[in-house]
Amino acid sequence: MKTVQVSRRSVLKAAGIAGAAAVMGINLDSTNSALAAAEAKKGILSKDDWHYGHCRMCMRGTCPNMYRVENGVAVEVMGNPKTPTSKGALCAKGQSIIQNLYNPYRVKAPMKRTNPKKGLQEDPQWVEISWDEALNTTAGVLKEIRERDPRRFVYSVGFGDMDFFCTFLFYFAGAYGTPNYIKTNGTLCVLHYASDLVQGVFPGVKPDATYAKYILAMGMNLGMGIASSDGGVRGLLNRIYNEKDIKVVCVDPHCGPDASKMEWVPVKPGGELAFLMGVANSIIFEVKKMDFEFLKWKTNAPYLVGSDGYYARGADGKPQIYDLKDKKIKSFDDKTLTDPDIDAKNVMINGVKTNAGFVLVKEGLRKNTPEWAAKISGIPASKIREVAKDFVDNASIGESIEMINGKGEKVVLPKRTSVCEGKRGIKNMRDGVHSDLMTKLLNMLVGSLDVPGGMLGTQRGRFLSPDEDGVVAPKGEARFKKPVYPPQHINLAEYFPHRHTLPTLAFKVAADTRKYGLNYDIEALLTVGGNVIASTTEPYEMAASVAKIPFSATVAYHYDEMAHMADILLPSHALLEKESVNSYEGAFDVYTKETISTRVMMYRDPMPPLYNTKQPQDIIIELCERIGMIDDFNANINKTGVILGEVTFAKLDPKDYLEPGKRYTIAEIWDKGVRAYFNKPLDDMKRDGIIVQQMAPADAYNSSFFKKGETRHPIYFERLKRSGDELRKFFTEYKDKIYLPDFDMEDQFRYYEPVITWRPKDLTNVKKGEKYDLISINWKTPTSGIRSAAVDQLPYLNEVSETFDPTYGKICLNTKTAAEKGIKEGDTIWVESANGKVSGQVHITELIFPDVVGFAGALGRLVDSLGKKAASYPMYNKLTNAKVSNCCAVAIGVSNSVPVRIYKA
Ligand SMILES: Nc1nc2c(c(=O)[nH]1)N[C@H]1C(S)=C(S)[C@@H](COP(=O)(O)OP(=O)(O)OC[C@H]3O[C@@H](n4cnc5c(=O)[nH]c(N)nc54)[C@H](O)[C@@H]3O)O[C@H]1N2
Ligand SMILES: Nc1nc2c(c(=O)[nH]1)N[C@H]1C(S)=C(S)[C@@H](COP(=O)(O)OP(=O)(O)OC[C@H]3O[C@@H](n4cnc5c(=O)[nH]c(N)nc54)[C@H](O)[C@@H]3O)O[C@H]1N2
Ligand SMILES: [Mo]
Question: How many angstroms is it from 350 CA to the middle of ligand 3?
């Protein structure tokens, strides 16, 4: 067991970090006093029994910690006070990591099922077996299938085991040769398309609250409910409470901990796009103040568009711009271009009338007045106007800031300080991508993309590149991939080029591949940290589908639904037993001065396992060897690199490549990665816990790498239209062959439009007198995000949550709605949608929009094998459905807000 010795010398070294931090303007006082306090505490820091680690009680896992082991027992955990981001803080989830270790419902040894019948109500009748038997049985089945037809094997992963970005997702599946690797997070987590289309980033964007003065937060949970210990969230709180120089407006049907600290604007679910269009309308036609320089030079607003909706192209094939200076039409990259006209109308190109993209965007928004938006969103027109004016007034249009770049040069960057962001609350809807694009459009109107104070991508530094038209080239979900028939993937990936992940659809198809046009059946499933039954939607249908797969094995930490349905359990270490490397990529929330230019690489020095379990990545590597595919696996790592976070890849130098035929441990692979990235061995991390690096301030911003006119962001969404036209053509050609229930081609492809329009959806029809007269919604709480680390199951967290969060595990109703329905606090009710019903206890509150039924967190289990408590909470996902006609038309995310009715149980 490796130990951490925090000696006087390393405390002094920490003081050195504090000195450097002071130069950067970071206040580390709390850090020093925390260190001193910890050291004073029984002198424990100088003892050998403290280990460095990092948390991972949530899927980000970006808060470095330290834990103490006494006589082989983990007895204490604290944040690592030397961390410049979280500064030694841990949230309630982080505090409960010891219960993750001593969880009595863990799988403690390899197991095989002896009851051949599979079902949620069936007792698997587990019998303990040896590791050899468990690995050989699993590898034996997988080897035989691989030789015959690798497509018959499904690899299903999720955020229950994030390390090596969901445990070798495509590395393992790619080596095996199956197209069927399915991430279970996707259905209810559709966040990526618009950020990729407009900014070329993955997984998403974050406001730069280092400088931002105004954040318009749409259907999102800043800081997982402001209880995250992450540096960004703490920095934001610092700005709100101490510096008092930022305004955050949360447009949400529910007032969570974040909205309660900022301004809450209650919205009727489904009315968000209308609200955003109302704000855009007011900015364009009433406020009339915008960042015209940005629109001219950093967007495709001046690109001339023909009557077919596509860019008009010159003889050289390039998009054309009208130059107001010499009244000539020029190619977008013409060096003489001086004053691009974003208001150009009726410009003739090749005998066809064209208009600037921005003219079409404005026309599209002309009718969407604040009064119109108020009727749909339930937000008064006066509030919509106020938001529009505040957004522009706080944007600092025209201002700039001087910074130092990586070459030591002074550069002047534009600074914009109003940002709008949306997350699951607006994106998981039929028009989710539209709402998301509309948030980007607001940012473009005031020029706040990729600049200090504006909206930034998760990856900092130079990552944008222009496509052949000079517009941001998408790298992920917004890239168009030509559809093909017959489909090869069980998630029908061929039909949905802009999907996130489609686990629910995948398992529906898996149960009946031939019907969907696939020419093979599914014979085996291996799951690591994903739960298609509990985390996605239509849980009973998912369970039936998983049960139908002839062989399934699960790398299991505890007896969750996926383990319950398996034939073989390959038991996994708990968090403190897992050796792990992770890099700070921020917790999705905001950047602040504490985090904007800081890189932190963190390491968990594991404690010896309590039971007969293994490191999950080592289980997969063992399987590779026994299946006979270690060469392919190693080659994949050499090709793609070592993943040190979610988006941090370390490319290996050919001299450090993994050798064919050799089986490495995950620690050896990480060692190669850390050396490649930081030029340090993994052993150094055992000693220090973290590696901290500072980037030059300007290098965090794309705008410091691209001059004006280079890499324009799309404000006219030509690519979306192109996708729709291609898809429509494909579906028309194959309409007699394609089997896709609940799919209406015309309705689907209407959404693929270059200028956003508003359309009614199921939520719009919810009103008094209808069968479904209320809308149910769901959110994450500080203690219940998703189910990673078993947070829904640990007694400490259950108790903290029930004591301090009145919404946790309850069904929330507005006072007025409860009175109308004759329902009282504590009553048990049924909530019923077209898809299913859930019962639970009512909590009455003013902090929810009337006509809304609110559920907190990803709670509820369908098996008792995690204890009765975890199973007792209402499971929201029974109410949702994965019908394509109801999903986001572009990213195919399930609609997370659902028409429902309620009645007393
Ligand atoms: N109702 C509701 N549902 C949601 C969400 C929500 O907010 N509310 N959020 C959605 C979002 S955004 C996402 S990303 C997805 C995530 O969904 P998934 O990717 O499926 O991830 P998790 O729910 O975190 O965990 C999956 C399973 O892993 C188990 N597990 C916990 N710890 C470990 C471990 O150490 N090892 C292994 N092997 N397994 C472990 C969990 O108990 C759980 O059964 O959920 C989505 N589903
Ligand atoms: N520290 C930490 N950070 C994380 C994670 C973590 O595990 N730990 N998980 C990450 C993951 S996987 C994800 S996907 C993100 C999710 O980040 P968010 O999307 O910010 O998280 P949610 O709580 O699901 O946000 C939903 C919000 O939308 C609101 N909402 C629900 N329905 C509606 C609706 O119909 N309309 C509107 N306007 N609002 C609605 C809810 O009240 C809630 O405030 O968080 C990420 N960030
Ligand atoms: Mo997510």
Answer: 48
